[in-house]
Design goal:
Helix content: over 70%
Length: 606
């Protein structure tokens, strides 16, 4: 019996070995996977190192669809052969297996390898990206000017709120990632409970972030507390949702397609957030709220008491109106958040990915963290898009101030914002086609460099026609900056899985620390930018700003973002995962998954 069982294993091993996925003969000659247990061997490591060092010279078998069909056929043949021998062994011992009993029983939905996603599933998954983007868009475009002109805390306090809140959010990202990795699978998955649990508290904290308390002296503490609370809860939502990408399908094309859907909805969410907030609160920032004369000492000395009182009453009426419209916008956006989260939960199934051997021992968090931080492609991708994202957020957070005080576009800024985001929304399908046709790295360079000349054009020619031209052109780059990092990060995770097949469950670390580094850098940058306005002499609630403030806003919109973009693209040159490496990783992960399925069934049968 033991000899026959060993023969079953050896025949299965020979069948799998004969189904090698890489066409290069030298690579195939070193590809060796053992079945007892089916783990990564020294030969496997040698093959991986050789393939990595010559990744640019390897050519794979025709289309991925044909390759998957051939691989599936070979695996089926292998399983059929082992099934016959298994039944023969059991028959010789007087224990016959029923003819109708399959050797491989039906797998659960959480481990099914055939995970093609329907359009409905992709749409529901993508809709889950909208809540975070709606709130983030409203905050990015309007929180700074809200704190300065409606809540009326000084620029230094506003800079502290933005800086501490962003840094707090960055610090909580890895903590949440750690807690997620320690979470157990439930009936609805491991990530979905985090998404559902934080949503109601998140909506409440977001509403109070846009509420002006009746007291004045403690407003700084009020906004700091609720902004930090909002950042913590949005991290619970975003880290869980981002990591969910790896658990909706094992197929790279399906994940890329779902990511394209997601990015499209993210831009729609950004557009929706900016449109809702912008159109509702636009009346709070038009020229109408400004008195005819500035409330200067000269004006006060030359005006009657009645005129002064009338001007003050006029300003207070518009201030009350501004507080009201900001709360209305917060309530509407909170309702959108709840609706989109519900749709995502009802339409998405979280699945566990059996890409490597299961083990009872869970790798410690710090060991997994060290492994992730030692993965060079992850470090390069994070550093590059950290700088690029900082550039986009720096432009985004100062854009309304720039239009209001430096470009003379106070009456048009909300429409310009909508044009930017509509352009980004419409260009997402183009960039999805471009990255599939020319590769993700090429798409990143072409898409992100497009914004540089147009940004400088707006700084030097600040008129309405130029502003709309720049808005349309900038939307292309914003779409690329949103799509590419989240499309490339799963490739980095796959590359890590190939390098470390026995190290599982670190997806949340990849996503949480990526967000951590981006938020930390953005928090520091935005805090410093607001502090620069304070040093330049920003006047809270003023209708006009002094020339140093105008000059500072031009630097924050033009020179600073361009410097960050150029540096980020220089780092991205070193990114090692090209299209050949992506295809190789896909094939190797398919082997790992199939090997684990076979290994699990052999453990049950033998």
């Amino acid at each position: 019996m033991a000899a026959e069982s060993n023969r079953v294993v050896n025949e299965g091993q020979e069948e799998l070995r004969s189904s090698g996925a890489v066409a290069h003969s030298h690579t195939r000659s070193h590809s060796h996977i053992q079945f007892q247990p089916l783990t990564r061997t020294s030969q496997w490591q040698a093959t991986l190192d050789h393939t990595r060092s010559h990744g640019h010279t390897h050519h794979f078998i025709t289309s991925s669809h044909t390759q998957q069909q051939r691989y599936s056929c070979r695996l089926t043949h292998s399983l059929t052969a082992m099934t016959k021998v298994e039944r023969g062994v059991q028959g010789s011992a007087g224990k016959f297996t029923k003819p109708s009993e399959p050797f491989l029983p039906k797998t659960s939905p959480q481990t099914n390898l055939n995970q093609k996603l329907s359009i409905c599933s992709k749409l529901c998954f993508a809709i889950g990206a909208a809540p975070k983007e709606v709130t983030a868009s409203a905050s990015a475009f309007f929180l700074q000017i809200y704190l300065l002109d409606v809540a009326q805390i000084n620029a230094f306090q506003a800079s502290l709120v933005l800086f501490i809140g962003r840094v707090w959010g960055a610090v909580t990202d890895p903590i949440i990632g750690f807690l997620i990795t320690k979470s157990n699978w439930t009936k609805i998955g491991r990530l979905m409970p985090w998404i559902l649990g934080c949503t109601p508290f998140l909506v409440v904290s977001y509403f109070y972030l846009w509420f002006v308390p009746p007291f004045i002296t403690g407003r700084f503490v009020w906004y700091l507390v609720f902004y930090c609370l909002y950042q913590t809860l949005i991290n619970c939502f975003h880290v869980s949702y981002s990591a969910l990408t790896m658990f909706i399908s094992t197929d790279q094309k399906e994940r890329d397609s779902a990511t394209a859907y997601r990015m499209t909805v993210e831009v729609m969410g950004t557009l929706l957030g900016a449109a809702i907030q912008g159109q509702i609160v636009a009346s709070a920032h038009t020229q109408k709220h400004c008195p005819t004369h500035n409330m200067s000492a000269g004006y006060l000395g030359n005006s009657s008491g009645a005129e002064i009182v009338k001007s003050l009453v006029h300003s207070q009426e518009y201030l009350s109106h501004a507080k009201e419209v900001y709360m209305i916008a917060a309530g509407v956006i909170g309702g959108v958040f709840l609706l989109c989260t519900t749709v995502m939960f009802l339409g998405v199934k979280e699945r566990e990915d059996p890409y490597g051997p299961k083990t009872e021992e869970q790798i410690p968090f710090m060991q997994g963290f060290v492994q992730v931080m030692g993965h060079v492609p992850y470090l390069i991708l994070t550093a590059a898009f950290l700088l690029i994202t900082v550039a986009i957020q720096l432009t985004q957070s100062n854009f309304v101030l720039f239009c209001t005080y430096a470009a003379g576009l106070r009456e048009h800024f909300q429409n310009i914002v909508v044009v930017i985001l509509v352009s980004a929304l419409l260009s997402i399908p183009f960039w999805q086609w471009f990255l599939q046709r020319f590769g993700k790295k090429t798409a990143a360079f072409c898409g992100i460099t497009w914004i540089v000349p147009f940004t400088m054009m707006l700084v030097f020619i600040p008129n309405l026609v130029v502003a709309y031209i720049v808005a349309v052109s900038s939307g292309l780059s914003i779409a690329a900056s949103l799509l590419l990092p989240w499309s490339m990060l799963p490739d980095v995770v796959d590359d890590f899985r190939v390098s470390n097949p026995s190290s599982k469950g670190h997806e949340a670390i990849f996503y949480s620390f990526y967000v951590f580094f981006v938020k930390l850098a953005a928090g520091i940058t935005l805090g410093v930018s607001t502090l620069c306005l304070q040093f330049a002499g920003y006047k809270t609630g003023g209708c006009e700003q002094p020339p140093p403030v105008v000059y500072t806003l031009k630097l924050l919109i033009g020179a600073a973002p361009i410097a960050f973009i150029v540096t980020g693209l220089m780092i991205l040159v070193l990114y090692p995962i090209n299209e050949d490496v992506r295809r190789r990783n896909k094939l190797w992960l398919e082997e790992l998954r199939c090997v684990e399925i076979i290994n699990a069934q052999l453990r049950e049968k033998l």
